[in-house]
Amino acid sequence: MEVTLQVNGTRRTVDVDPRVSLLDLLRERLGLTGSKKGCDHGQCGACTVLIDGRRANACLALAVAQDGSDITTVEGLADGDRPHPLQAAFVEHDAFQCGYCTPGQLCSAAGMLAEGGPSAITDDLATDPALTAEEIRERMSGNLCRCGAYPNIVTAIVEVAR
């Protein structure tokens, strides 16, 4: 099937098998290897991308279902040679060790910062809570880091959230 996507600001039209995941399309057909294949079951978040501005596990999204969507991968977060504020904060706060989860963490954090609204731990559901470290940990809970760099990841996101 023919699928047309806006990927990191560039319109891409490709023929894909209807069973191909968005992750496999990005990595194997479009050469965008930033998004990682971790568990391939939607449990680790290493493949997180933004689909129409909302974070999603690319390993669970069928490519054909994204026809006409705007996809942002970690490669598309930067503004030319200028890194995204989250990317700069991750470097500044040493928010990665092996780096395997970092692309998914960055895309998830970018989507989370744009989302707003209450989370599962928000006391007052009628308000948009401050993004405290506790709120950020809850909202980022779908992205795992086997190295345990969570404290620095949260610190980097808190800095950008301000």
Automatic annotation (TrEMBL):
This is (2Fe-2S)-binding protein. It comes from the Bacteria. Signal peptide: none annotated. Residues 1-77 form the 2Fe-2S ferredoxin-type domain. The keyword Ligase does not apply. Keywords: Oxidoreductase. The keyword Oxidoreductase applies. PROSITE patterns: 2FE2S_FER_1, 2FE2S_FER_2. Transmembrane segments: none annotated. It comes from Nonomuraea guangzhouensis. InterPro entries: 2Fe-2S-bd, 2Fe-2S_ferredoxin-type, 2Fe2S_fd_BS, Aldehyde_Oxdr_Iron-Sulfur. It holds the Pfam family Fer2_2.
